[in-house]
């Protein structure tokens, strides 16, 4: 899968989960995908930054949804400012 196609699939996955994050006052943005196309870096924003369950959201929600759209992804990492 080309990098452009992979990025589009990841954005599609984020669009799927974004309404749930926004309903709690948060959001998420894609920062990068590594050159091997296996590690995705995102930034949780808004209320998600200080939320006590943001790691659970990242693994159970975001990572699972991204892997559904792009199964070759191995890990999703939240990058703070």
Structure description:
The protein is 51% helix and 25% strand. The protein has a three-stranded mixed beta sheet with strand order 1-2-3. It has helices spanning 3-23, 47-50, 54-69; strands at residues 26-33, 39-46, 75-78. With 81 residues, it is of the alpha+beta class. Helix 1 (3-23) runs antiparallel to helix 3 (54-69). 21% of the residues are buried.
Quick synopsis:
The protein is an alpha+beta fold and 81 residues long. It is built from three helices and three strands; from the N terminus they run H-E-E-H-H-E.
Major sheet attributes: 3 strands, mixed
Count of beta strands: 3
Strand order within the widest sheet?
1-2-3
Describe the global form: globular
End-to-end distance:
30 Å
In percent, how much strand structure appears in the residues?
15-25%
Counting DSSP H or I runs of 4 or more residues, the number of helices is 3
Key attributes of the depicted protein:
single chain, 3 strands, 81 residues, 3-stranded mixed sheet, 3 helices, alpha+beta
SSE blueprint:
Layout lengths: L2 H21 L2 E8 L5 E8 H4 L3 H16 L5 E4 L3
Parallel strand pairs: 2-3
Antiparallel strand pairs: 1-2
């Amino acid at each position: 899968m080309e990098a452009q196609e992979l990025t589009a699939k990841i954005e599609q996955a984020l669009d799927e989960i974004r309404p749930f994050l926004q309903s709690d006052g948060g959001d998420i943005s894609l920062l990068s995908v590594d050159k091997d196309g296996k590690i995705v870096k995102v930034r949780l924003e808004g209320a998600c930054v200080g939320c006590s369950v943001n790691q659970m959201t990242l693994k159970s929600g975001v990572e699972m949804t991204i892997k559904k759209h792009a199964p070759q992804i191995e890990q999703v990492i939240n990058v703070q400012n």
